Amino acid sequence: MRLDMISRRRFLKSAGAAALAVAAAGVLAGCDGGDSSSKVPGTEVPDVPGTTSKSVKIIFADVDNGGAGVGNGGDYYEHPVLKDATVVDPKSIPADKIPQGYELADTTPVEIIDNGNTLLAIVKVKKTVDTSINVRVTLQLINATAADNQRELVVKMPGDAAYIYTDDITLPEDLIWAPGMEGEKRPIGRAIFLVKKV
Q1: N or C: which end of the chain has fewer CB within 10 A?
Q2: What are phi and psi of 133, to 5 degrees?
Q3: Distance of alpha carbon 104 from alpha carbon 63, whole angstroms
């Protein structure tokens, strides 16, 4: 037996063993309990597509619009679930994946539909309730004529706001805050601020 053949065989054996070790490390890395993004949402099970999990296309349906899909007709979100799951828990969907301006309308688990080549789940959403309020602000002009000594603005504020600050107000281009007024606050309902012409 020639020495160069033995070297080649040994080399091939070593290369095969190394490749197997690298592949095994990759599989084990998915099981080492790393960060939460490697787990099936809502579980402690490692997310290994095809082995421990399967992907479901989540279609968001607007309950206030007759169940119409949110976004452009074919918009959906790929959501991993356990391989043997028959339902999707809407609460397991990350908040940043729910369409902007919407919230879950129902948190009851929804059935996974298998249409032959795709797994789908329809999750009901509704538009987020706007709790903001319109606050009337009076701008009292100093050193102005009696006919033009005040103006009124309407400013949108959070519904639980007790005060309105000068930082919340965008002044008309011809006005600036009166001396000492910047950073001031006034109670909602009695918001009078001093301003002067530029």
Answers
A1: N
A2: -125, 155
A3: 10
Q: How far apart are CA 92 and CA 104, in angstroms?
A: 11
**pLDDT tens digits, the chain, 198 residues: what are they?**
444 445 555 545 554 544 443 344 344 444 444 444 589 998 999 999 999 999 999 999 999 888 888 876 567 889 999 999 999 999 999 988 998 889 999 999 999 999 888 999 999 999 988 889 999 999 999 987 777 889 999 999 998 899 999 999 999 999 999 999 999 999 998 999 999 998
Length of the chain: 198
Of all helices (H) and strands (E), which one includes residue 25? helix 3-29
Model's pTM, two decimal places? 0.50
